[in-house]
């Protein structure tokens, strides 16, 4: 694989599990020095060992991204050590058990908003001006197709993911012309530990007859992080196997056509 990110410093939040872990592996495979910010120390160490044993370079910090003090401390240490931050992938996320909005505890709404939106805000604030000063940077926000059409029972998640799209558009305008790009990736249904017990969809109901893989997302994120993506800014990229364009009417028509 071409080492197009050789010696670049890449911060990946939530980079020890699911999509984030796949992103960490992909960036490391392309030569980046990956810095994982995530809460779970055990998973951090496990991911670090896996990537290092695969020839990659990774460091981990046990950080709650919704806590600005923890984020600032970690980013300050990274910047002090390397003198730069080339890439920020804001991927840290969480989900709560399915509940109608009228029955959802405020704590559930608050927890999801803080991790997704406060987390992204804290990380961009800690990294953005440092990127601008060097006239180079790649920021990728991991949203979701939930930001397009919502999820019944997960209003808090849909609000957070839609908020990341608005954040991405706004940041792209603020950084325009600075050498720093901001793009948004919106995955479809990806089986990850976070989704276990929350989303259970038959692959027969999906356009491609399969759910996505974390690697499907990681490849796209790696492109957005590369120097070659310099002309892409404020771009929302949906990676869902056609889920957002599929409707119940389409599904019914296809079943009729298959019987014709």
TrEMBL record:
SUPFAM superfamilies: NAD(P)-binding Rossmann-fold domains. Keywords: Lipid metabolism, Oxidoreductase, Steroid metabolism. Its EC number is 1.1.1.100. The keyword Nucleus does not apply. GO terms for biological process: monocarboxylic acid metabolic process; steroid metabolic process. It is an enzyme of class 1 (oxidoreductase). One of its GO terms (molecular function) is 3-oxoacyl-[acyl-carrier-protein] reductase (NADPH) activity. Pfam families: adh_short_C2. Belongs to the short-chain dehydrogenases/reductases (SDR) family. This is 3-oxoacyl-[acyl-carrier-protein] reductase. It comes from Clostridium felsineum.
